[in-house]
Each structure stands twice: as C-alpha cells, then as structure tokens.
Design a protein that fits this description.
Length: 464
Amino acid sequence: MLEKVYPTRIIVPMMQHYGVPAVPTVEVGEKVTIGQCIGAPEPGSFSVPVHSGISGTVTDIRDVSLPNGVKCRAICIESDRKRTYHQSISPRSNIHISASEFMGIVKNAGIVGMGGEGIPTIAKINRARETGVTEVLVNCLQSEPYSYSDFLRISDSADYIVMGAVALAGAVGVTRIRFLVSESASSEIVALQTAMQRTAGEYSGYSFDFAYFKNRFPQGYYRLVARALYGEILGENDTMENACHAVMFNCSTVFACWNAVADGLPLMSRVLTVTGEDGLGHNVLAPIGTPVSELLDSVNGKLETNNTIVWGSCLTGLVTNDPDNTPIIKTTSAITIVRDDDVHEYPCIHCGSCIENCPMEIEPGIVTTLIKQGRYDEAEQEGARKCISCGACSYVCPSGLPLTPTIAMFAAQKRNSVVSAYSTTEKIDIGSVTLMEAYEDVSSKEYVKKEEKVVLPFEGGKFI
Ligand code: SF4
Ligand code: SF4
C-alpha cells in the first residue's frame, strides 16, 4: 500500500543529479507552491531544474552535505499546510504531442534517472537519438533486499509506465519496447500486461516484450544487463547505446515522464521504501527534500540506540548520522534502518566467496589487499575501477572484511579524477558513462529539425 507523507518542511538540494548544480531562483521569505521551479540550470550548463514538492515559505538557502559526498546549496521550505499547486500545473487535455515537445516537457520537469545515477533523462534521450538505437528497455529489476518502491510504482501505475515507455520510444525513434522483469515478479508482470491491453487504443505500431531475469542481486545495473541480454562486456568508455543499440530507463523514471506529460507534474516527489530489519516496511510517496527524520516519524520508525540509518538500500546505501538535515533526493529509493551488530574482522580464509559473488568478475579479497598496501596500479590492473559498489562481496565475506568500502571508494576516486579533467561544457566522461555534450544546444541539431514533424503515435497521431 502506498502511504503519503506530508512533511512540515523540506530541504531541497540544488544538486541531485549527474552534472552541475542548479541555481536557486527564489529568495528567503518568498512564498512557493507545489510544482514551482525553485532552482534552474545556468544557461549552457549540464544541469536540470529543481521544483518544490510542498507549498509554503522559503526559510533559508544554505549549504548542505549529502551522504554521497555532494556539497551544494539547498532551499529550505516550511510548509503552510495548504497544498497549493503552482498555476502552471494542470492535466494535459491533448496528449498528441511531437517528439520535441515531449523532450521539452521531460527537460523542464527536471527528470533524472531515479534508479541510482541521476543522469538527466533528456541527456539519455539525446544520446540515444544521436547514437541510433533499436529498442527501449524499461528496467523493472529492483533487486536489492527490502526495497520495493519500483514494484509498488508498477502495481500502482502500470498504465503510466506503459504510456511513458511509448513516449520515450517515440522520442528516440524506435517502436520496440522491452520490459526487464524478475521472473518472480508475477503480479507486476500481470499489471504491465493488463496496462498494455488497457492502453492499446492510445497508440499504434509499438511492440512490447518481456525479458525475464533470475531473482538475484545485483541484476539491473546496465553493464550486467548488457552482458545478460546482448552478450556484450562493456569497456570503460562503452555505453549501452553504442555497444548494444539500446537505451534503458528505470521504471520510476518512465512513470515520471508520463506524469509530466499527462498531469503536468515535474519531478518533485517520489515513491521510496522505508524499511529495516525489525520488520518495518512501508512504501511512501514523499516530496523530494523531506528530511529522513520526518520520513521515519511518519511511519513510526523507531530509532534504537544500536541502529544505523542508511540513506538508500541496505547493501548500496550510505550511512547518515544527521537525519534532521539529510533530505531524500530524486535518486533515493529507500531509507533503511539496520542493526549495529558488533562486526569483527578476521584474516582472509581464501574461501573464494567474494570472487564467486562479484558480478563484475573482480577478485575483491586480492584487490582490497592491493589497495591497503598502496599498490594502486596493480589494483587497477585487477579491475578495481569496474566496481559497482553492489556490496555483495562484503555481504558474503565470512571474515567480515570491509571489501566494498575499500574497493568502491578507490573506484570512485579514480572515476572522479577523470570527471574533474573535463569542464562542464565539454564532454563529461566518468569512464563508464559518456554523456551528451552541451545538451542545451540539441535543438540546433539537424535531426531535431527533421523530426519536428513527428507526432507521437497516440490516437490521432502518426508515426513516420
Ligand atoms: S562491491 Fe564487491 S562484489 Fe560488488 S562489484 Fe564491487 S568488488 Fe564486486
Ligand atoms: S570472502 Fe572474505 S575470506 Fe573469503 S576469499 Fe574473499 S576476502 Fe577472503
């Protein structure tokens, strides 16, 4: 069941996405409404707008530090409890929109990949159009223990996910849509199939398909999907678009796209799971910026002295010690409470479990030793940079060794050093993800002019 959270205040960071921060467009003391843009990209910058999820008054604009290491400005808003929507928010009566219109809506709605990386969705669409893909993949493979927010979104809003997938396919110029699902997610599969039948009159010419994955963790990471679906082992600079001719969107992101089209709502709230080992398990719809402490209060989440709050899911999330000042952001799919068990470290017993369970074929025990000994070049040669921070190696290690934090931090430092080598108006490359350069300028590209006439193939539309 989806529970709604109405916080008394929100803290909205200007940096919730891959790229550079948005710039506040409101001032302290100003009244704001739901859906109002409160932060906008600087012209020419690789950024996305940020919106308020509540109505109220701006009480502060200050620096915040997020658990993922991001430091940026944030807008603090005190709720007026009136839930007043911005005048620009209204349902769309005509969904027969062109591809470029759809892209404009996605861009202005501040939509980013909600499955983790926060890549601006408009950049992904542009990259797919430029590369020339043959299919759209909808990632419904939420596989981390205790996290169910994507499943709830599918059960609750399958029609929106199907329509959003069609719109994204229309925007990138393909007709083939594949839903990636866990083979055990039978009720979500039925929900999507039913939605396909129910919405069939709204579009024509699209084919839907399911790709079934085993129910294991991790499953939905794009490199693993590339290998499972296409047999492609992506190199550091490969993207799914150029290597597999496919573009993948998380199902919550797809929902957000159609929410923006049909209801005119920007990305200002999200579904997330509030969960823990004590049986706490809630799927909530909360305004982005809701402080973690308010979220826990809303579901009566008790925080015992021997508990730790994880900002994210239990295996890949990050610890936060300041729940009053840590907000949820566009990419937060869960808040997890875990017990602080006394963990003792023992020497490696060479059981090989970490190697068997690493989805990236790294040898975590060896790589950790190399990093600890300062043998960084050798650690890189052993593939440390490929680490996706999935947590599987630490989880299975019987010696309680801190494998994931050691390797993941090393990998992140290496990737960040590549990022800082580029200015924001040039190509941004983090090794594994290459994004469009200067996506603001995409409207000047020849292919956009050519496809300006394309109408998304909803009822009454035509597909060229
Ligand atoms: S966290 Fe461990 S198991 Fe996961 S990719 Fe990194 S090294 Fe492999
Ligand atoms: S799982 Fe732990 S004990 Fe086993 S080989 Fe890996 S590092 Fe060593």
